[in-house]
Amino acid sequence: MRFSLNTMRYVTIIFSLLFTIPAFTQNEDIKSFPKPFIVKTNLFSLLAQRPTFAIEKVFSKKFSAEFAFVQGHFNNILYRDYYAYNGFLLRAKRYFLPIEFAQLNPFAAVYLGNLKRHIQTEAGLIGTTGWFGYPSKDFFANSIRGGCSLGCTIITKNKIVVELLTSMGYGRYTKIYKEDINQQSKGYLDAQVWFSIGYSF
Fold first, then answer.
1. In sequence order, what are the beta bridge partners of 38?
2. What is the DSSP letter of 35?
3. Which helix (H) or strand (E) holds 17?
4. Phi-psi category of 173—alpha, beta or left, where left has phi over 0 and alpha has psi -120 to 50?
5. Mapping DSSP to helix (H, G, I), strand (E, B) and coil, where does residue 186 land?
6. Which of 17, 84, 90, 99 could make an SS bond with 73 (beta carbons 3.0 to 4.6 A apart)?
7. List of the chain residues with pLDDT < 50
């Protein structure tokens, strides 16, 4: 897969942020959390026929950040013949209580990332009367997105991680590769539901 120069800039910025965050959290004790890295994947990505990978760094008992690569595609869903996406995402999490093993650890988070979206639809009709229909579409663009998340994490004593989160935000198109002549949209509602499983090391 080829990445554009802008995408590589986003990755560089995100990695820089990810590894400078400890300077702001060094006063919190994580000695009781001996495995501060978590690798995981979103199982819901199986529906999109592509894996999602994420690595999370625990900086303190109440703060962590994750970097994720997301991708997927759907055929014949919600009146769309084809929908494909890929991008990177950085999520900063703040836990309501100190992280503990073998219990629910609820958190709130903010996220920022980019997303390339490709949507194709052939014109069609609903019903036999022909009164209702939808136009054809062939739209391909890159976007910047951001928003907020709520979720909870369970880390078992054998280091297995299970996480459920939901997110809501907004995406703004930054570069249009193929424009949709039927709709001049500058952005979109960004909604996410993740059910992830991983391992702490």
1. 56, 200
2. -
3. helix 5-20
4. beta
5. coil
6. 84
7. 1-3, 18-19, 21-31
